[in-house]
Amino acid sequence: MGNNWEMVIGLEVHAQLNTSSKLFSSSPNQFGSEPNENVNFIDSGMPGMLPVMNFACIEMAIKTGFALNFKINKYSVFERKNYFYPDLPQGYQISQFEFPILTEGFINIDNEGNQKKIRIERAHLEQDAGKSIHDIDPKFSFIDLNRVGTPLLEIVSYPDLSSAEEVVSYMSSLRQVLMYIDVCDGNMQEGSLRADVNLSVRKKGGELGTRCEIKNLNSFKFIRQAIEYEFKRQVDVIESGGKIEQNTMLFDTSTGETRAMRSKEFSHDYRYFPDPDLLPVNLTQDQIDKVKTSVGELPQAKLDKFIKDYNVDKDIAKIITVEKQNAILFEKMISETDVKPKFIAAWLVGDIFAFIKENNLEVSSLNEKTKEITDLLKLVSDDVISNKAGKEILPKVLNGQGKPSDIVKELGLEQVSDSGELEKIIDEALVGEEENISKFQGGSDRVLGYFVGKCLKATKGKGNPKLINKILLERLKN
Amino acid sequence: MSDIDIKRISYLAKLKLPHEKEEFYANSLKDIIKWVDNLKMIDTSETEPLHNVTEKTVSIRKDEINKSNSVDDVLSNAPERAQNFFKVPKVVE
After folding, report:
1. Nearest-CA neighbor of B86 among A10, A327, A45?
2. Chain-chain contact of B64 with A40 (C-beta, under 8 angstroms)
3. Quick check: A140 and B90 CB within 8 A?
4. Long-range contacts from A113-121, C-beta under 8 angstroms, 24+ separation
5. Which distant-in-sequence residues (6+ apart) come within 8 Å of A194 by Cβ?
6. What are the residue ranges spanned by the domains of chain A?
7. Which of A28, A185, A440, B33 is spaced 20 to 30 Å from A419 by Cα?
8. Who among B64, B75, B89 is closest to A20 (CB)?
């Protein structure tokens, strides 16, 4: 396969809004309930039932508008997208078509250290469909309508993406922002965030090719695999003299291959028209402005602040800002202590995250323990206890086994930082070591480590290593 | 006026037309469209599209849960039921 081909990709991302109730009905918007538990007569498409707009969905769309630099349209219209499928009992999906609530946004993504601006054409509100289960019975499909009417925000990018890495970076940046502004829980496994990938290939810089759409990808791994497979498939077709047909594709997660689901010839004819059950949305400037105050600090702003104001290393700052909960915990700790943020950050992404992972905890569960954590970090940064002792005590503190200072006393972990006492120990340790001392003075640094070890052992590991080092050097140089 | 693809229309409407009736229905539809096309006599180049005849905005509600129907209510009209699912002829795309 020649390497003078490039891919051109646009993404349609469906984000489930984390409201309590559905878009047009008061049924719970909840994952994992018993089949058809969260369904009422509106959701099940009973004749005569009328949809009523959940205003929280509009507010979340506006919030997304601010966060992703969109033009927020005061006027938008809900239309019916007609298709027949058993998990869509109304016979149509209520969506926005000609007049979406958001147009012309963008997001900056990080691509191997470089920033790239990805333009977003539009975002609109729509209902989700239910679920068909095909593998219980050979002759019948089983229908669960719980997901019917779940509010979705469909975010449609321009074809500005040109590699699987960029797509993953775009998708994860989008996910991060949506989670920061609290409109989507970002849980891809549960389908809260999923993508349709539109991909075509062309000779570098050439005319756009015919695109295929790969439906419903719900993990970064599958997105990457599907893109790589589809790119190769299209190039192979063209290089062997064939033509790409505009198809809708499915990605088979077990084989890692894409296959055609339906061709253009059989594509749906959606026959959109304004839903007569729903009046157009006419927002006032006041309604839009009210939402603006709730957007909060976005991930990029937090990252910049951590690096510039708190002096945290970029890589560590990135780990902390990946999820909003991390950043909240970090900033809470900073506000409660005079320990340097950089020092706290290192402990956070190190031992504290390790503890959270090991015990399968939510990061937010530590918000009530920040006082104990910062007290402990203060003891370490003030050299009252060693780094090693700090690591040993941390799990006990996080498990609520007492105040750090009490645990330190109880376990006798306080460091000996009394220089008089340490000098005595060091002098004793140097007795009879004339040979090693002259080795050191002859330029062998290795001997220093030996001496530090010997002194630490003499203090039963409680001597302050920094101080021991310092005094030792003074002694050895004379 | 463009020709009418009666096969496609009957497919979209989920209607099975007998072959000998296709022409009859195609002509009926053509007549209807011709009649509606009278609207084209009006010059609308200066008119904004209207999506609803009332000037009002969509009615809204608060984001609150109200479970108004039980699983049994919802499944009571189902042609067939299996546990708490609707049971329908297999449709796989």
Report:
1. A45
2. no
3. yes
4. A116/A160, A116/A166, A117/A160, A118/A157, A118/A158, A118/A160, A118/A161, A118/A166, A118/A170, A119/A157, A119/A158, A119/A160, A120/A68, A120/A70, A120/A155, A120/A156, A120/A157, A120/A158, A121/A156, A121/A157, A121/A158
5. A13, A14, A188, A216, A217, A218
6. 5-290, 299-411, 419-477
7. A440
8. B64
Q: Mutating which of B74, B75, B77 best tests the A interface, going by the most A Cβ atoms within 10 A?
A: B74
Domain assignment of residue B24, given as a range: 6-41
Q: What is the pLDDT of residues A400-434, one digit of tens each?
A: 888 998 888 888 777 777 777 888 888 888 888 88
ipTM for the complex shown: 0.85
Q: Which range has the worst mean pLDDT, A17-21, A166-170, A173-177, B45-49?
A: B45-49
Q: Among residues 430-459 of chain A, which lie with CB inside 8 Å of chain B? A: none
Instruction: State the total domains in chain B.
Output: 1
Q: Look at residue B89 and tell me if it is in a domain.
A: no
| Whole-angstrom distance, CA of residue A428 vs CA of residue A168 | 61
B35 lies in some domain: yes
The verdict on A267 touching B (C-beta cutoff 8 Å) is no
Q: Which residue of A has its CA nearest to B82?
A: A142
Which residues does chain B have within 8 Å of residue A138's beta carbon, measured at their own beta carbons?
90
- Please name the CATH architecture into which domain A419-477 falls: Orthogonal Bundle (1.10)
- The reply to whether A259 touches chain B by the CB within 8 Å rule is no
